[in-house]
Design brief:
α2 packs antiparallel against α3. The two termini are 22 Å apart. The chain has a single domain, classed as CHAD domain. The chain is built from eleven helices and no strands. It is mostly helical.
């Protein structure tokens, strides 16, 4: 079953089915590791992100469940994040390489990539308890499946429609707030909030795509592009933080300054492009769009 909810079916059964599917796939991937342990961790963490977003969408139906299970999945993802974060930094430098202006910039980024590869390999060698943490996460996934039996959601169509509209409205309101903050304050945390809101919107468009397939397909495409832009922007913020905390890792001060200048230039370009696109993606008021979701749900359910 894909990551989507059918409005013509009981909401509780649909949410449980999706959640079990995501958790079962996470367990299978972490245990089988067809493409290696680190790729399995990356895939499982994406499942946790999708599931946490689903729980936020239906949060008003069972807030204690949402709070407890979102925390479980958040902690599970964090326990496996160190190696993936180290790999993401290498991918960030590769992204920057496609936007160099001179041979000197290309050489600087090549040297930075070599440093980050060595850093990742060192983390891999010293992270001796990773497999045991994976085993703990698998056990948490099984507990999360059991916890689904305690989830309570409305059975009436009108109540389910209001619940979904409320979750949609809350997420979109957070996106509007984050967008306004980014326009007034150009700091990394604000853009990270906008990225999370855009990612939530993209996933909500996916999970409710059956409400209006043609319109939601176009919206999903724009939202995904926004998520990608803001993802690159956030990765550059993480890389800048590493430069601040571990400056000696990247050599002399001149090389560090040159690398930082490349990062800042690309980050500014990404922010400008992302803000322009975000104005389009989040053009409609939250309450108006939530009202459309409610009406679409009622029509699709009947």
């Amino acid at each position: 079953m894909p990551y989507r909810i059918r409005p013509d079916r009981p909401l509780l059964a649909e949410v449980r089915l999706i959640a079990r599917q995501e958790l079962d796939k996470a367990i299978e991937t972490l245990e089988a590791r067809p493409d290696g342990l680190h790729q399995a961790i990356h895939a499982a963490r994406k499942k946790f992100t999708r599931l946490r977003n689903l729980y936020r969408l239906i949060a008003s139906g069972d807030k204690p469940f949402q709070k407890a299970e979102s925390a479980r999945l958040r902690d599970a993802a964090r326990s496996l994040s160190r190696m993936r974060d180290a790999t993401a930094l290498i991918e960030t430098v590769q992204h920057l390489t496609a936007h160099t202006l001179t041979d000197d910039e290309a050489e600087t980024l090549s040297a930075a990539r070599e440093v980050l590869v060595l850093r990742r390999d060192e983390i891999a060698e010293t992270d001796t308890d990773l497999k045991s943490r994976v085993a703990v996460v698998v056990a948490e996934c099984r507990s999360a499946i059991e916890a689904l039996e305690g989830l309570s959601l409305p059975s009436k169509t009108s109540h389910a429609a209001r619940l979904m509209a409320k979750g949609w409205c809350k997420g979109l309101a957070q996106a509007h707030e984050a967008l306004e903050t980014c326009k007034g304050e150009s700091h990394g945390e604000a853009f990270h909030d906008l990225r999370k809101a855009a990612q939530a919107y993209w996933m909500n468009l996916s999970v409710l795509r059956d409400l209006w397939p043609s319109a939601f397909a176009a919206k999903r495409q724009d939202a995904k592009r926004l998520v990608d832009l803001l993802g690159h922007e956030h990765d550059l913020t993480v890389l800048t933080t590493l430069l601040d905390h571990e400056p000696d890792t990247f050599g002399d001060g001149e090389g560090l300054s040159f690398l930082l200048a490349i990062i800042i230039r690309r980050q500014q370009d990404l922010r400008r492009e992302a803000l322009d696109l975000a104005d389009q993606v989040f053009a409609d008021p939250a309450k108006s769009e939530a009202g459309i979701i409610k009406a679409l749900w009622m029509r699709a359910a009947t």
